[in-house]
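Q: I'm writing up a methods section and want to include an example of the input and output format. Could you take the sequence below and give the corresponding predicted structure tokens, formatted cleanly so I can copy it straight into the document?
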Amino acid sequence: MGERGPAPKRSSQRRRQNKPEHPITESARRQVCEPPKPADTAWHPVAQQWYESLGQSGQCVYYTASDWALAYMLAESISRDLKPRFVGISGETGEAIIQQMPIGGTSLTAYLKGMTDLLVSEAARRRAGVELQAGQDDQLEDDTVATLESIRGGKAG
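A: Here is the clean output for your methods example:
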């Protein structure tokens, strides 16, 4: 878990079908996971959309209360960074200057790290040994995912 380098290929794209070191053994039906706290209506729309999308993603079946707390904190911080903010005082009028500023590199890096910890991207899920399989209609109806408990315990299924 947490390998560096390029993300592993999907199991269907691998040439060799060796037995995986940590087998993907359990199939879980996709379910909508309700976060303990709803998205704050005062958040920036991008932050709201991201937070709400987590509950509709296949990896949410593994989220615990602390994962949802991390997601809530990330969405709150992202919202603050995306909204207009105080940048200075006008020398001519003495009024506050409020502008929308780009997200700083350090903040963006921290957000992406938090999202990786939440298995938001497919690459992060593959590195962790979790693979979601989409159906023919591109709906995640019969997701095949690794059971983290079986990986941690070192036992199959």
